Amino acid sequence: MKILIIGGGMGGTILANNLARRLAAEIRSRKVQLTMLTASDKHMYQPGLLYLAFGRMTPDELYRDQASLLEPGIELQVDPVETFELDKNQVKTKGGKTHAYDILVIATGSRPVPEMIPGLAENAEQFYTEESALKMFRSLQAFQGGRVVIAMGVPHKCPMAPLEITFMLHDYFKDRGIRDKVQLHYTYPVGRVHSLENVAKWAQPEFDRLGITYETLFNMKEVDGKNKVVRSEEGTETKYDLLITIPVHKGMEVIEKNKLGQGGFIPTNKTKLTMEGHSNVYVIGDTTNIPISKAGSTAHYQAETLGENIAAIVKLGQPVREHDGKVFCFIECGKDRATYAMFNYTNPPDPKPPSRAIHWFKMAYNKLYWTSARGLL
To answer: What's domain 2-109+252-326's architecture?
Structure first.
């Protein structure tokens, strides 16, 4: 049986390692061939980009060689897919190879597309790539005071990023001794400060306590860089001296080009994790269109479910469990306090009061990520 995983991010890596351990005997006896196709020989710890933007991590801390994270028995090829031929159970790569499969897993991730909002890419800072996070770091260092607007696009990766960046900005300017010279103004597209109701109920009083102003039902329409104004689809506008954005995300271009899903997000069964209409094609992580948070933990828990199910298909002939939509997200509440949100398809989150202990647990996880990517945590 040929199992093919497309994508070497967190979801694809954890899944590959999970399967390599569960199917070690089958791989050794050549009953199973496990292959990963990826676009890069490096693996990035994406949550670290937020810390890079504040000078609390350095670029070299974000990367490991992808091969070093994979169990024996996984065939890694740095050769990205260009064409999906699902009706033929095969894909074609940029290098001109054709790979047949019995089971296909698509874990290609998502990408920020600030250019979808006129003027946003040219006039706003964001931290979703190494380059943009370093640029934001330099802009924050140079900023001496004024109105900082945090503006959101949807959908976006990491559901807690809007809150984290806002709380971290508060502490950053406080540490620099210029918080009294900075007005932090937070905008959000729906009628509360976060899409998850209980998270919004927790966050709004925190904003009030810290003197952070906010405007809800603010969907970005355009940015007027000359006049330093952000305008909304609702007809309002807000001035800024420094604009920071959580940009709208789309799935990867290869998904759009192959017309596998609108916006690059593939229609996915939320409990089986199968691509709609294809029983032997699975989708995990940011690539799905499942209406749940696009986060590393989402991909992690989906990979664990799928690892168990694919191994069961090989050994028993059918899957053994359904995915429950579990998500666990840390919420950094500044430089040294944090809380978390844990939820699934049926149980909403209930954030607890922030503490130093949870913050240090998050800091420890930053170091343990590489163990997690190997599926050992």
So the answer is: 3-Layer(bba) Sandwich (3.50)
Structure-block tokens of residue 307: 């690892």
Determine contact, residues 296/328, Cβ cutoff 8 Å. no
Where does CATH 3.50.50.60 sit in the chain?
Answer: 2-109+252-326, 114-248
On whether the CB atoms of residues 331 and 286 are closer than 8 A, the answer is no
Q: For the whole prediction, is pTM greater than 0.90?
A: yes
What are the beta bridge partners of residue 110? 251
DSSP 3-state of 49: helix
Contact 171, 335 (CB under 8 A): yes
Beta-carbon contacts of 328 under 8 Å, excluding residues fewer than 6 positions away, are: 297, 301, 340, 341, 342
Point out which residues pair with 70 in neighbouring strands: none
Q: Which amino acid is at 317?
A: G
**Helix, strand and coil percent figures for the chain, each rounded to 5:** 35, 30, 35
Long-range contacts, 194-200 (Cβ 8 Å, 24+)? 194/159, 194/162, 194/163, 195/159, 196/159, 196/341, 196/343, 196/348, 196/349, 197/348, 198/341, 198/348, 198/349, 198/350, 198/351, 199/160, 199/163, 199/331, 199/341, 199/349, 199/351
User: CATH fold of 114-248, please?
Assistant: FAD/NAD(P)-binding domain (3.50.50)
Q: How far apart are CA 52 and CA 125, in angstroms?
A: 13
Contacts of 205 (CB under 8 A, 6+ apart): none
pLDDT in tens, 95-146: 999 999 999 999 999 999 999 999 999 999 999 999 999 999 999 999 999 9
Cβ pair 65, 41 in contact under 8 A: yes
Which DSSP letter does residue 289 get? -
312-338: per-residue pLDDT in tens? 999 999 999 999 999 998 888 888 889
- Bridge partners (DSSP) of residue 93 are 81
What is the C-alpha end-to-end distance of the chain, expressed in Å? 28
297: three-class secondary structure by DSSP: helix
> Interhelix angle for 10-22 vs 356-373, to 10°?
60
Residue 37's pLDDT is: 98
The amino acid sitting at 225 is G
